[in-house]
Amino acid sequence: MARRPIFIPDSSYPYVEEKDIEFQWYPGFAKSQAQKSIKSLHQATERSGISPILEISGKSAEHLGVSLSAFNLSINDRMSVECAYQGSKVFEKGGPYTDLYFRSSREAKTDPRLRNSGELIAFKFCGEDFPIKPQTGFYNWLYIQALGQNQNLARELKNFQGFSDIAFNPKRSINCQARAAAIFVSLSRHQQQLLEQILENDKNKDSFNSFRRIVPQEPEQGRLF
């Protein structure tokens, strides 16, 4: 058995509820094994009264879930959210490595410079500096910006009551595309004016500051991947 969080849009701050679900885990690296685990997780979640649920990852059985993966979801019409996130990292000894913007998402995430450049100290995106706290702030903001630029996907997202990411383990990492999606859905349902304020700012830094004021300051845990 294993436990994974399901991210549920919430009408009030912090705009997302995380519910740990115990389910049957199917070990192995094959996509078919991951999809068995996803099915088991979703069935267990549905028994708790949360349905429908969307897996957001490259392992999803739904085309929508694959398209919404940070590896595939585009921002600024030229890079994936994953490439934007990894290529914007600034370290003690280097970065941002903006050449990662134009690599594949997997290449960007596994680039050795991200592990060999010292401590992460900031982000720099489109010429503007962003802080590393709150820990998930920059990642969630990028993802929500990307959803604002992909309205067809964003509309379909609103049909779900919960979101999962089978690869996300809160003991190992902190950023999660399923959490970011749940925050977006919650804001679109209950705080549309705030969401528009985030998405319609002409300057990225102003948009980020608006977002940071309305999202939770998460406890420091896991790693910023």
Give a brief description.
The chain is an alpha+beta fold. Helix content is 40%, strand content 17%. It has a domain at 2-72 and 153-191.
The radius of gyration computed from the alpha-carbon positions, rounded to a whole number of angstroms, is 17 Å
* Helix fraction bin: 25-40%
- Rough shape? globular
The SS-based structural class is alpha+beta
Q: Please give the number of β-strands.
A: 9
What distance separates the N and C termini? 25 Å
Question: Which keywords apply here?
Answer:
single chain; 225 residues; alpha+beta; 3-stranded antiparallel beta sheet; two-stranded antiparallel ribbon; 9 helices; 9 strands; 40% helix
Written description of the protein model:
The protein is of the alpha+beta class and 225 residues long. It is 40% helix and 17% strand. It is built from nine helices and nine strands. It has a three-stranded antiparallel sheet with strand order 6-7-8. Strand 1 (2-9) and strand 2 (16-23) form a beta hairpin. Helix 5 packs across helix 7 (177-190) and helix 7 crosses helix 8 (192-200). It is globular, with a radius of gyration of 17 Å.
Per-chain topology:
Layout: E1 2-9, E2 16-23, H1 31-47, E3 53-55, H2 63-67, E4 74-75, E5 79-80, H3 81-87, E6 89-91, H4 105-110, E7 120-125, E8 128-130, H5 137-149, H6 151-157, E9 162-164, H7 177-190, H8 192-200, H9 204-214
Parallel strand pairs: 3-9
Antiparallel strand pairs: 1-2, 4-5, 6-7, 7-8
Helix pairs in contact: 5-7, 7-8, 8-9
